[in-house]
What does this fold into?
Amino acid sequence: MNAQRMSGSEMVIKALVDQGVDVVFGYPGGAVLPIYDALFKQDKLRHILVRHEQGAMHAAEGYARSTGKVGVVLVTSGPGATNCVTGLVDALMDSVPVVCLTGQVPTHLIGNDAFQEADTVGITRPCTKHNYLVKDVDDLARAIHEAFHVARSGRPGPVVVDLPKNVVVAEGTYRAPATVRHKSYHPQVKGDLGRIEQAIELIAGAKRPLFYAGGGVVNAGHAASQLLTTLVRLTGYPVTLTLMGLGAYPASDRQFLGMLGMHGTLEANLAMHDCDVMVCIGARFDDRVTGRLDAFSPGSKKIHIDIDPSSINKNVRVDVPIVGDAGYVLEDMIKLWKARQHRPDAEAIEAWWATIEGWRKRDCLRYRTSDDVIKPQYALQRLFERIKGRDDVYISTEVGQHQMWAAQFIKFERPNHWMTSGGLGTMGYGLPAAMGAQVAHPGALCIDVAGEASVLMNIQEMSTIAQYRLPVKVFILNNRYMGMVRQWQEFFFGGRYSESYMDSLPDFVKLAESFGAVGLRASKPAEVDGLIDAMLAADKAVIADVVVDPTENCYPMIPAGAAHNEMTLGPDEGVASPPSEEGMILV
Amino acid sequence: MSQGRHTIAVLVDNEPGVLARVIGLFSGRGYNIDSLTVAEVEAEKTLSRITVVTRGTPMIVEQIKAQLDRLVPVHRVSDLTLEGPHVERELALIKVASTGEKRVEALRIADIFRARVVDSTTGSFVFEVTGTSEKLNAFINLMAPLGLVDVSRTGVVAISRGAKPI
It folds into this structure.
């Protein structure tokens, strides 16, 4: 039964079900009423009614990143679609597979400035991997099936399908997914074997090697993370991960140097600077990772494995580029490594590890403890003590200092358990993302590590969380400042805290209670353990307001425009030197 | 780094918005467009061909090609400047309004450039001239003192020499 007659709305539902979708995050409105009516008449798809369309997007991202499946959003035309824009760009920057179905005014009104009309495909063209405006009901099923294929294959990303109201009302012929083959889009997944051989020779001959892996390994599926772990262990070489890659290699392993980049560990960044062979897998040499480009890892041969050819040689020239899926390429690399029976230069590698251990001994994540005021790092360390060893914990974050501390102090053993807005840096991401993860994993522990400023940007989703009785935990490190903004103003703008202090914050305990959630507060270090226990014991949503030191800064730090070996370690080892003019522009 | 000039041919699905995707890519990422032409070339397969002349360091030009290739409706990207000999042509319609000796001189130069007169009044000509961009530039420069009033150019179209398709 490849061809069936039905209405466009029924087609939307059938196409989603045939694509394996079980949950849709959405918000109804005039242009999508026919689709919501079809949704009402079926029981295969669950709909989660959000409170703002941006919340739907981030929830779908949280769902996608915690499951590896495509997240789905359904919103109305005009403001429904424009409210999705931030989430679409976020998903584009972090390569998250999301299909966003938007309503549109009837085709004969398009271009007439009709009520709730916006040029959705025009607005979202640079915000998506691809988008569609469906003008004919007989094209509808194909467009949705293609959208899923484009969203999940190659380098994943968001796809918008714009659905005019008359198209979803019309009757047409449904086509099954198997009948759809894309004309021009065929991403390359297998890496070039000659290049892989070249890479293996380089890796085998290295004296100061380093694996540098990112979100691409997570996106390539669980198997890819296991293959990375296998290859790293076979070689005995050190490995560092990007913010997006955390979990792709077990953090408890001795070969793991921690996260790299602006707030990464000293050992990871110095290893990047000093290595002689760098193996980049599924990462993109972001400016937050490389620091000053002309001083970036000056002495290394670079191997870059990426599924997106445009990521290669974009910021940094590499010696061995390999286009392909991280999983496939890693599999070939392991085969080749074993077949050639490579033995690394034991003496050189031992010396390299001795150097790294010297850096590690500096204990760069060290901070001044206090008995009077809660240090944010302490709160996170205590939280991690209580959740470590559990494999049903999903952590999301908002954006800022708390995000970097979470990345430093919460250790991930497996992929898909860490959700954060890396590329776009979207404040307000964490609460809806944790909500989406909780929808996907009803019995799991989903925690949004938040700042008080970020969490207010999508706080309305507490109402969604209440409606679906989602036991999401919001762990707020409340310093009353936009902490990262304050930190930069302290370091680089003479301590002029322009508009970074928040007066009149809500009482988060009462706010929690107003949403039917549990509200908790800790103001002294001695209260932190009790707060965490109460939070974890609650069988419903919790907002935990942890009142932390407002002046704490996030270290270590590579100021923008500085090199990896120009890292600032902490208040006891001198503050960050003012960045160069170029660095100030980079911010 | 030297800013090399590259002529890139792009074969795309002729669907709504495809040109906006290409132009948006150039403006969004800050790449240069010297000229851009587009037309359907295979009606039954609904394929269009875009010829874009751009400028940039080798690293930027490599990025431009990779970014173009990443667009979903793009079938093929070919850097004609790098891939061997190719032919480039541009067409211009040029309006010259003058009388007396200037009018005669304009006609004489048009003859040298093998430009055709496609419209004429007692006080004006419209010339059609085809050739490389440099030839068109030269012709337009010569017309400037002879009553040049209007220029319309197609931008560069290009194709590789020899038997192989794009």
